[in-house]
């Protein structure tokens, strides 16, 4: 299972420290080399976890200056787990550690969905599969009350209230993408 260690100070971002944390969570397998030890919001490693033991929420780490800091864990692709005991494979209402008559208030559980890591965002491509990047010029469209967009389109120099006709006493200007205006073609410029 992949584990993210968050809030690690930069002076503790060493591979030996990550191995110690991995052995604390389970059995350390490998450090994710895509996530460098010198940058990023977290350190990521793979470990094998005993599903009968509770998940660790975090750990104290002692820096070179002697101060203890709390680092917390987030688990990627975390399956079903119990918010009461922290073990995987069952939920709180089926937890063997809870009596049927004495079910606890969920607000008192020690575990929550905070242990689940959110999916990583992929970098956005700057181009569309080899096609050149185009920039679309938006058009200023006047939308008279009671009429559809496209009745009066295109840029205009006469934006004063006197330029509006008597038919459109409550006209308003909107920025509209050319695809949403009938008979309009986008103007493309190369970036």
The level of helicity is under 10%
Biggest sheet architecture = 5 strands, antiparallel
Strand fraction band? 15-25%
CATH architectural category of the largest domain: 2-Layer Sandwich
pLDDT below 50 for ≥5 consecutive residues: which ranges? 147-170
> Mean of the pLDDT scores?
72
**Termini separation (Å)?**
43 Å
Number of domains in the coordinates?
Answer: 2
Order of adjacent strands in the largest pleated sheet: 2-3-1-5-4
What is the CATH topology descriptor of the largest domain?
Alpha-Beta Plaits
Specify the overall morphology: globular
Keywords: Metal-binding, Zinc, Zinc-finger
Pfam family, one: zf-CCHC_4
GO molecular function: nucleic acid binding; zinc ion binding
InterPro entries: At4g02000-like, Zn_knuckle_CX2CX4HX4C, Znf_CCHC, Znf_CCHC_sf
Task: Explain the overall architecture.
The protein is mostly beta strands and 191 residues long. It folds into two domains: 114 residues, Alpha-Beta Plaits (2-Layer Sandwich); 57 residues, no CATH class. The protein contains one helix and nine strands; from the N terminus they run E-H-E-E-E-E-E-E-E-E. The protein has a five-stranded antiparallel beta sheet with strand order 2-3-1-5-4, with helices on one face. A two-stranded antiparallel sheet has the order 6-9. Strand 4 and strand 5 form a beta hairpin. The chain is globular and about 60 Å long. About 13% of the residues have low confidence. This is CCHC-type domain-containing protein. Keywords: Metal-binding, Zinc, Zinc-finger. Pfam families: zf-CCHC_4.
């Amino acid at each position: 299972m992949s584990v993210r260690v968050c809030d690690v100070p930069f002076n503790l971002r060493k591979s030996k420290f990550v191995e110690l944390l991995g052995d604390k969570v389970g059995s350390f397998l490998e450090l994710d080399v895509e996530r460098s030890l010198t940058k990023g919001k977290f350190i990521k490693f793979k470990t094998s976890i005993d599903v009968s033991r509770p998940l660790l929420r975090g750990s104290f780490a002692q820096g070179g200056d002697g101060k203890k800091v709390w680092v917390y864990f987030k688990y990627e692709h975390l399956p079903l787990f119990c918010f009461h005991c922290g073990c995987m494979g069952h939920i709180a209402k089926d937890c063997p550690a809870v009596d049927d008559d004495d079910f606890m208030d969920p607000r008192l559980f020690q575990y929550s969905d905070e242990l689940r890591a959110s999916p990583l965002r992929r970098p956005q491509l700057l181009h569309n599969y080899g096609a050149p990047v185009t920039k679309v010029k938006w058009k200023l469209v006047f939308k008279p009350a009671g009429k559809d967009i496209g009745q009066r389109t295109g840029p205009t120099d006469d934006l004063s209230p006197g330029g509006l006709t008597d038919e459109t006493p409550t006209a308003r200007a909107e920025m509209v993408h050319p695809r949403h205006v009938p008979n309009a073609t986008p103007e493309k410029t190369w970036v």
